[in-house]
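Table S2 (continued). Query chain:
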Amino acid sequence: MNIAKRLALTALALPLLAPLPLLAQETDPESGFVIADGWQTVKANCTVCHSAKLVTQNSGSRNHWESLIRWMQDTQGLWQFRPEMEATILDYLAEHYGPKEHARRPPLARDLLPENPYKQEDQASG
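Corresponding output:
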């Protein structure tokens, strides 16, 4: 095989050997969100109240993201989503910010944690 053919084959094979981070997906320069189906919906809804970094630095299963949405709705004043919009948001977050391999272990169950020495006793009962 001549040198030109070897170089051509090598050039074609190199992208296949590259690690996945080198083949990273395109991101929105303003928010850092991966540009894929649903990213504009996520950006439009999530960045109203907080930085996109709060989303992009986190990860979790679809159930985890749903529980965060419910917590924000119950305690932080987040509005209710139409079902199709919520599905778009959850699909996007689960796919692009899903659980990370080799990440930290899941948090311990509350009953396995030691007593909090800084917890304030209820003033009304004292």
